[in-house]
From TrEMBL:
This is D-galactarate dehydratase. Residues 58-81 have a biased composition (Low complexity). Residues 29-91 are annotated as: Disordered.
Length: 167
């Protein structure tokens, strides 16, 4: 009896595949497109004002980092106003094609100016803190330019101290 029920269940699932019936979840909905190639009229993300995107074919940290030495010096400057400690976070490299000095972190709920400090080198960098929709311990993604100013190895997970700056 058990074998007859098992055989009927197998036939009930297998036979519709032989008849060409369009049963959802069993391959009957395969004529729908799975993915579409973006066309010329597809909106693309806009570059941030005042930032230069990396050149096509960039394949090194130097090529992706489009900041000037003057911009790096300004970002490494010591702030004049007191900072407010937001906390410590484990940081990793963010999108290297997104230029500028920024940190995507769950420690803020709105965009604001900030500063990151790497204790191993004692260096700090001024950044734009951007909110990240994640739990507070989820870590922070940091721009290529900011990590280079801090002297952080680009492939490392590094603990940074995050401060909010007075606007």
């Amino acid at each position: 009896m058990k074998h007859a029920i098992g055989l009927m269940a197998v036939l009930a699932l297998a036979l519709p595949g032989c008849t060409g019936l369009k049963i959802p979840f069993f391959g009957g909905d395969r004529d729908r497109p799975v993915a579409q190639t973006p066309g010329a009229d597809t909106p693309r993300p806009a570059a941030r004002p005042g930032s230069t995107p990396p050149p096509p074919g960039a394949d090194s940290a130097e090529a992706f980092d489009t900041t000037s030495s003057a911009e790096r010096s300004a970002a490494a400057a010591t702030p004049t106003a007191p900072d407010r400690l937001l906390g410590k976070t484990v940081a990793s490299l963010g999108d290297p094609a997104d230029p500028g000095f920024w940190a995507l972190t769950p420690l803020v709920d709105r965009p604001q100016p900030g500063r990151l400090v790497y204790a191993a080198t004692g260096k700090g960098v001024l950044v734009d803190l951007r909110p990240r929709a994640a739990a507070a311990g989820a870590g922070t993604q940091v721009s290529l330019a900011a990590l280079r100013v801090l002297g952080v190895p680009l492939t490392a997970l590094t603990e940074l101290t995050v401060y909010a700056r007075a606007p």
